[in-house]
Design goal:
By secondary structure, the chain is of the alpha+beta class. It has 3 domains: 179 residues; 52 residues, SH3 type barrels, CATH 2.30.30; 85 residues, 2-Layer Sandwich (Alpha-Beta Plaits), CATH 3.30.70.100. Helix content is 53%, strand content 16%. The protein is built from 11 helices and 8 strands. The chain has a 5-stranded antiparallel sheet with strand order 4-3-2-1-5. The longest helix is centred in the N-terminal third of the chain and has 32 residues.
């Protein structure tokens, strides 16, 4: 029984045109293709309008991919309806009905669409999410990974198509499963690093340009976050390459967050027990303020000083302030140490070295 005979009027009028069923078939095919194309383009236009204001380019890439498949989907849908209306009892090659042919071809189109969407996702990840360098070409973004992803998806849909055509795909599925397992085991570390890189770029615990320190003691500025490794520039200008899986599984301290460019520092200094603690407190504060007036990286309003504890051989004072830029703290500390040394020397404040008093019992 025809599937669409009750849905589209004037079928008999089309059959009465010159050329008979062939003319009716072609008119329906062309007309329905145009109608479906317009409908799908309108729907795609609404989608593009909704996502136009988003910051990411992923939705734009998805829309571009979908646009390329509007015409094939429209033609195949129009072909199915035209065959069902004009030639309802037609049997195609291999005993296939028009619906069977439609499903097989649509599976092929779906496979190509899925592979194109995966490719768009990898391109977005490689160009936008990882903050790639300006001027990078799309063909240079993960060419091997993109090809593997596309081929894998297409092969999967080919299996679905063969199943629909009645072929026994058990051996194919088994072979693909064994091959996939072998590839997964061989690329275990690579895949772990890849997904760790995705996690880092999506969760964004740090970004390119941030100064970080790992629990292993490695610290430096993040120069690049790749799909397998992250490159860090250490203090000695050495370039350190860290696998993303190691980085994702490590406790990382970011000195550029939450407010980028500001780092609080804390130091300790000891003076002799015979010194006046109020005088020492005042001298430390004055020294820090002098440095803040000369060094633009030190925030003078954040200076604090306190008498902290009684040490084994010295009275211990702690002081701190905020520095603009983590790596600037050592230049500021150099000026602070110099100012404290000359201030203590001028006021004859003793900075004791470790001593031990031994009493001999007679």
């Amino acid at each position: 029984m025809p599937m669409f005979s009750a849905n589209i009027p004037y079928v008999e009028m089309l059959r009465a045109l010159p050329g008979g069923e062939i003319t009716a078939f072609l008119v329906l095919l062309v007309g329905l293709s145009i109608v479906f194309s317009i409908a799908l383009m309108i729907a795609l236009g609404v989608f593009c309008f909704i996502v136009r204001k988003t910051k990411t380019s992923l939705d734009d890439r998805v829309a571009k991919v979908l646009q390329a498949y509007v015409l094939p989907v429209s033609i195949m849908t129009a072909l199915l309806i035209s065959l069902e209306l004009i030639y309802p009892a037609v049997v195609l090659f291999g005993g296939l009905s028009s619906m069977d042919l439609y499903i097989v071809v649509m599976l092929g189109i779906a496979g190509l669409l899925a592979s194109s969407l995966a490719d768009a996702l990898l391109l977005w990840y490689g160009i936008e999410l990882r903050e790639a360098k300006a001027g990078v070409k799309e063909e240079d973004v993960y060419p091997f990974v993109r090809n593997i992803a596309r081929i894998t998806i297409v092969l999967l849909f080919i299996v679905f198509m063969l199943q629909r055509l009645g072929f026994d795909t058990t051996a194919i599925i088994t072979g693909l499963g064994i091959g996939g397992l072998a590839v997964a085991l061989a690329l275990q570390d690579t895949l772990a690093n890849f997904f760790a890189g995705v996690h880092i770029l999506v969760d964004k615990p740090f970004r390119r340009g941030d100064y970080i320190k790992m629990e292993s003691g490695l610290e430096g500025t993040v120069k690049e976050i790749g799909w397998r490794t992250t490159r860090i520039s250490a203090l000695g200008r050495d370039r350190v390459v860290v696998p993303n899986s190691k980085l994702a599984g490590s406790t990382v301290r970011s000195y550029s967050r939450p407010k980028s460019g500001e780092t609080g520092v804390l130091y300790e200094i000891g003076v002799g027990y015979k010194e006046d603690i109020d005088k020492v407190d005042k001298l430390i504060t004055q020294s820090l303020k002098k440095v803040a007036e000369k060094n633009e990286h030190m925030q003078g309003k954040t200076i604090w000083v306190r008498f902290d504890s009684f040490g084994d051989y010295a009275l211990k004072f702690k002081f701190g302030y905020i520095v603009n830029g983590y790596t600037n703290q050592w230049a500021v500390l150099k000026d602070v140490n110099r100012e404290l040394f000359y201030s203590f020397k001028k006021n004859k404040i003793e900075i004791p070295f470790p001593t031990r008093v031994v009493y001999r019992k007679k």
